[in-house]
Amino acid sequence: MKTNVKNIPYGRQNIIQDDIDQVISVLKSDFLTQGPAVPKFEKAIQNKVGANFSCATNSATSALHVSCLALGVQKNDLVWTSPNSFVASSNAAIYCGAMVDFVDIDPLTLNMCVETLQEKLENAKKINKLPKVVIPVHFGGLPVNMKRIFELSQEYKFKIIEDASHALGAFYTDPIDKSKYFVGSCTHSDITVFSFHPIKMITTAEGGMAITNDPELSRKLHLFRSHGITADKSFFHDRPEDEIWNYQQLELGYNYRMNDIQASLGISQLKRLDYFLERRRKIATNYNLAVKKLPVNTQLYTDSSSYHLYCIIINELLTSKDQKSLFKHLYSNHISANLHYIPIYLQPYYRKLGFKAGYCPNSESYYKGCVSLPIFPQLSTLEFDHVINTLKSFFE
What is the dihedral sign for C-alpha 28, 34, 35, 40? Predict the structure, then answer.
């Protein structure tokens, strides 16, 4: 296909002059790190999602790790998550010495299947192998049925970390009382984790955040984020009267802090979150209309999603075309599509842990036919039309 369109990535950050000015103001200030910008950014995010406490980190992976630590995950504990995610969702538990397992996805939502989770919990209870923590993933920005998972957590006594790396700004509505909850409110979880990677809803270049409503969990998150050190004298252990140091290390923590340069960018970006979400939802709506007559399936559409991703799945019953051929066709036409995700347990590292193909059939079936199309706020009409025309030419 002849086109004047340059390469179209599947995701791209949106940086304007206000963002640059905010960063420059911090570069000219007294604090490049451990200054006022990080607490300000933390407060802005927790206010946006309706939670009580927040802990900014240098990545969402770090936020997942300190979340596991704060919940007491340790050697030989069991942690379950979704196989349809980036490896960090399960790696964080392994960092703590835990053993991980996976709950297959719902083919419609591409999120952890609640019915499968319940069945797995029932079987695990019989052999005394219940998980200490379950980490549902809001894949692509579509919220998981958190209320139902929370109900299961009450019955089976596990903690919940929401991996909401894709889902800042997403929300879900209670089907009975119609109450609206933002992902991150922690109404139905212990901790929620966000990512601020460049292609996410907003960016701090690299960065993440753990959100909670529990003051003790918040204290532990901050402790593990910064070397296990506290300056809060109420937690100090006994020390000599003439001791002048103003901090103590209470735990083995990590240097996972976000700096003020990153936080200043996040503060500026957050002001445009609603615009970013509006654009992503509009693009997703247009995609839905455009692919309706093509032999593909899509993730369940809902205006509550943040649409970090827009994934199509080739319907093998309606076409002889395959995923690899589609990838090649898109790339040859300057469209850098992507794939989200190879089931985590099929990665070589996890195969060494004993996982084998066939373990989560829905995840594997989805993976074999999925392609992530470009979606980001500044995707132009010309670029969008080029993506759709390229798809149509492939299937024709």
Answer: positive
Cα(75)–Cα(67) distance, integer angstroms: 15
State how far the alpha carbon of 322 is from the alpha carbons of 168, 295, 317, 367, 371, in Å.
Answer: 33, 11, 11, 12, 11
Q: Return d(Cα 285, Cα 304) in angstroms, integer.
A: 12
Identity of residue 110:
L
Closest CA to 71 of 183, 184, 221: 221
pLDDT digits (tens, 9 = 90+) for 378-390: 999 999 999 999 9
Identify the weakest region by mean pLDDT among 2-16, 123-137, 322-336: 2-16
Q: Exposed (0-12), middle (13-18) or buried (19+): which is 235, by Cβ within 10 Å? A: exposed
Prediction pTM value? 0.96
Q: How far apart are CA 241 and CA 244, in angstroms?
A: 8
Average pLDDT score over the chain: 96
CA atoms within a 13 Å half-sphere pointing along the CA-CB vector of 325: 9
Q: How does strand 8-9 pair with strand 335-336? A: parallel
CB 194 within 8 A of CB 163: no
Give yes or no for a cis peptide into 341 (omega within 30° of 0).
yes
CA distance 358 to 83: 12
CA distance 147 to 142: 14
Q: Judging by beta carbons within 10 Å of its beta carbon (0-12, 13-18, 19+), is residue 367 exposed, middle or buried?
A: buried
Per-residue pLDDT reduced to its tens digit, 350-381: 999 999 999 999 999 999 999 999 999 999 99
Q: What CA–CA distance (Å, rounded) separates 140 from 310?
A: 7
- Determine the length of the chain: 396
CB-based burial of residue 19 (10 Å sphere; 0-12 exposed, 13-18 middle, 19+ buried)?
buried
Write the burial class of residue 134 (CB in 10 Å: 0-12 exposed, 13-18 middle, 19+ buried). Answer: buried
CA 89 – CA 281 distance, rounded (Å):
25
8 Å CB contact between 266 and 41: yes
Residue type, 389: N
Please answer whether residues 208 and 272 qualify as being in contact, where contact means their C-beta atoms are separated by less than 8 angstroms.
Answer: no
Element (H, E) at 319: none
Residue 329 Cα distances to 75, 391, 392, angstroms: 46, 8, 11
